[in-house]
Design goal:
Helix content of chain A: over 70%
Radius of gyration of chain A: 19 Å
Number of domains of chain A: 1
Oligomer: heterodimer
Shape of chain A: globular
Strand order of the largest sheet of chain A: 1-2
CATH architecture of chain A: Orthogonal Bundle
Largest interface: A-B, 44 and 41 residues
Distance between the termini of chain A: 56 Å
Shape of chain B: globular
Strand content of chain A: under 5%
Largest sheet of chain A: 2 strands, antiparallel
Largest sheet of chain B: 2 strands, antiparallel
Radius of gyration of chain B: 21 Å
CATH topology of chain A: ABC transporter involved in vitamin B12 uptake, BtuC
Number of strands of chain B: 4
Helix content of chain B: over 70%
Strand order of the largest sheet of chain B: 1-4
CATH class of chain A: Mainly Alpha
Chain lengths: 292, 333
């Protein structure tokens, strides 16, 4: 393969990696928003918290796989508790209350993380088995990035098969379109909500663990990647999983090719893309206008 | 008539206290009060969006910071510029930015509005770090001159940030801003905003053009945030990415508004005062202001969702209903 094609291809793979990470975070946001109508501003903070948990688990057990199992689970449980004991009680106050509450939790996590782990960035090693490069058609690419793409794919497939293949998935989808009706049919919708919220934060937790070796762990992590994930959800249309997926990939590619061609302006590309989409379609690419 | 008289007396007393404050109190308390006044104007400007239009902005610091950077850049780069035009430039740059952004944001609301502003705030933050040549990057802009105010070359008044003169100027500008915003919300136009918040569709049917009127209040809110930011920049003689555009700069007025009560005009002012006092006490125990802000936000929304003003209103309603023999209970029975 000639070097130019290889360069384009590897930048494309970089973009795909970043897009997949974004989608792992954005999909949790989307599933929570689609089902409960809650925009969880603390979502990116849970993502960051998982990265810190994985650092801590790695320090104790020095096994990446245990971290991948434990850290998202802890974050998921925390998310479940937040839903059960805080969010549920203020659901009656509407969107404003939820935004304010999740903002508060975001601040608490940010402050707490800085209080416990300090403000410097903590290195997390790439696991031994995923170190090195893979040769694809004569081009070398880091194994770990391919692993990220793989694990994201796995989660997506898992999510689709649960949503469309099981009874629980059916209940969740029904609750997304009409939660009152599902409640009337004798299904405990608040319980389902609680688990969906936990599941969403668990997804963010997985993203947090896999991102940690790539970017190291620091308090700005939530701002940096979380902001992009929020922009994905806004641009793709609130509650649209397809939108989140498509825009995640677009953003990933914009980011990687942007860095290559117009490096200083790369962060502007995503914002401009979002502004452009919203100027034409305020509800986002795949969003539907909510009627009140 | 009688009520009017007491109002006049209260106003005169307030003005007298404001005038005498630098004579009575030392520099620490005047600075504290001036900071309070800046953030009160900033919070009221945010509440014009939040309380009167129902639009929650997570990036209002965009305009606060724009006002600050506008003034700081003007003072740094234009030699011989007097103070008032410099403040004017800051306010103008905030307003122009609001005018540019308004066509996009006037069409969305709710969560999308909040998120677009979060992105806008982050964008401004990043830009102020990246355009190092103009904004000084992480160091920000400091040590710019604070010229006096000239009167046609006849005489000039010195305006050192710590001086009594500057205190009077700042309090005048901020006080007039609050009055202007108060009158703005009392005009028929301001009342239409409340109607739009409560029932957008019906107002559209009545023939009002919602994006247009929303743009106007948006630009006004941006303008007054610019006023607050500009005064703050001169007062501190420093602008920085974290102080002007940082995430805390956006969330402080939201917290102040929520704490005081977004349903009332004076709620954000009260909230700013309470927050500053709580902050002062809490910082004795922790250096992480984020924890204080976060805990306060969670507390307010869980236990006092309508803020202090809402709490007072509720107490008054209870008291009134007890006095009239609990009409509500009888009606219910």
């Amino acid at each position: 393969m000639d070097p130019i094609t290889a360069m384009y291809l590897s930048q494309g793979l970089h973009g795909l990696t970043y897009g997949m990470i974004l989608f792992l975070i954005a999909s949790g946001l989307t599933i929570i928003f689609g089902m409960m109508g809650i925009l969880n501003l603390a979502h990116a903070s849970f993502f960051m918290l998982a990265a810190y948990f994985s650092y801590e688990v790695l320090r104790i057990t020095s096994s990446f796989w245990i971290a991948l199992l434990v850290a998202p689970l802890l974050v998921g449980i925390l998310g479940t508790l937040v839903e059960r004991y805080l969010l549920r009680k203020i659901h009656a106050h509407g969107h404003l209350g939820e935004l304010i509450l999740t903002t508060g939790i975001m601040m608490l996590i940010l402050g707490g993380v800085m209080e416990i782990w300090g403000t410097s960035s903590l290195p997390v090693p790439v696991p031994d088995s995923l170190r090195g490069v893979v040769s694809i058609a004569g081009m070398y690419y880091p194994t770990y990035r391919l692993f990220i793409i793989g694990i994201a794919m796995l989660v997506i497939v898992l999510m689709i098969s649960v949503l469309y293949g099981t009874r629980i998935g059916k209940i969740v989808r029904a609750a997304v379109s009409d939660s009152e009706m599902v409640n009337a049919l004798g299904i405990n919708v608040p319980l389902v909500f609680m688990f969906v919220f936990g599941f969403g934060t668990w997804l963010a937790g997985i993203a947090g663990v896999v991102v940690a070796p790539l970017l190291t762990v620091f308090p700005g992590l939530a701002d940096q990647i979380g902001m992009d994930a929020f922009m994905v959800v806004v641009t793709g249309g609130f509650g649209s999983m397809v939108g989140a997926f498509v825009v995640s990939l677009i953003f990933g590619l914009l980011n990687s090719y942007g860095i290559q061609f117009v490096s200083t302006l790369a962060p502007l590309l995503m914002v401009s893309f979002m502004a452009l989409v919203l100027a034409v379609r305020p509800q986002g690419l795949f969003g539907v206008i909510e009627d009140e | 008539m009688n009520k009017k008289k007491t109002h006049i007396i209260i106003w005169l007393l307030l003005i007298a206290v404001l005038l005498m404050l630098p004579k009575w109190a030392d520099l620490y308390y005047t600075s504290f009060f001036l900071t309070f006044a800046v953030f009160a104007v900033y919070a009221v400007s945010l509440n014009m969006l939040l309380g009167y239009t129902g639009l929650l902005s997570f990036g209002h610091a965009t305009y606060f910071g724009m006002g600050g950077y506008g003034t700081a850049l003007a003072l740094k780069n234009i030699s011989g510029l007097s103070l008032l035009p410099a403040i004017g430039i800051g306010v103008l740059s905030a307003s122009v930015l609001a005018i540019v952004v308004s066509p996009i944001v006037a069409r969305v609301r709710g969560a999308a509005f909040a998120m677009i502003h979060l992105a806008l705030g982050m964008f401004m933050y990043t830009m102020s770090l990246k355009l190092r040549r103009y904004t000084g990057g992480e160091d920000g802009l400091g040590n710019f001159p604070t010229p006096g105010i000239e009167f046609f070359g006849l005489f000039s008044i010195s305006m050192e940030p710590s001086s009594t003169n500057f205190y009077y100027l700042a309090v005048t500008i901020l006080g007039v801003s609050v009055l202007l915003m108060w009158f703005f919300t009392k005009t028929p136009f301001g009342q239409v905003q409340i109607a739009i918040r409560d029932n957008q569709k019906r107002i559209a049917y009545l023939g009002y053009r919602i994006p247009h009127s929303r743009s106007i209040i948006y630009i006004t809110a941006g303008l007054f945030a610019g006023v607050a930011g500009s005064i703050y920049a001169v007062f501190h003689n420093l602008v920085s990415a974290d102080g002007q555009f940082g995430i805390l700069a956006s969330f402080t007025p939201i917290l102040a508004s929520m704490l005081g009560g977004i349903g009332s005009f004076f709620g954000p002012i009260l909230g700013t005062g309470v927050f500053m006092i709580v902050e002062e006490i809490a910082l004795e125990y922790t250096s992480r202001i984020e924890i204080v802000v976060g805990a306060l936000l969670v507390f307010v929304i869980m236990f006092m969702p309508y803020g202090i003003m809402g709490f007072i209103y509720m107490l008054r309603m209870k008291w009134a209903s007890r006095r009239t023999g609990d009409l509500s209970k009888e009606a219910a029975a």
